[in-house]
Amino acid sequence: xxxxxxxxxxxxxxxxxxxxxxxxxxxxxxxxxxxxxxxxxxxxxxxxxxxxxxxxxxxxxxxxxxxxxxxxxxxxxxxxxxxxxxxxxxxxxxxxxxxxxxxxxxxxxxxxxxxx
Length: 116
Known about the structure:
The protein is mainly beta. It has no helices and 11 strands. It has strands spanning 3-7, 10-12, 18-25, 34-39, 45-51, 58-60, 68-73, 78-83, 92-100, 103-106, 110-114.
């Protein structure tokens, strides 16, 4: 069974940092690219970042480029999202995701709230 479990969310002040983690199981983690998405209240789910299976290629949405960094630890079957210089508009439920056998899988998400 494929499982993606996010953690690390919380309440942070504007300008602060958080590091999200996603623990994966049920598939050969090192063979697949991983992604982060987010969904703000009242809005659709939006892509945030990608990392390739070998970790050499990353890509980011324009709204987070230069502030967020995606990385992976294949020995721990974990993907991270380091979020710096957080803004109120980064407030959202953050999801880890991957595509396996032409199907996209999602975790349940972790809430990030940026507020003073």
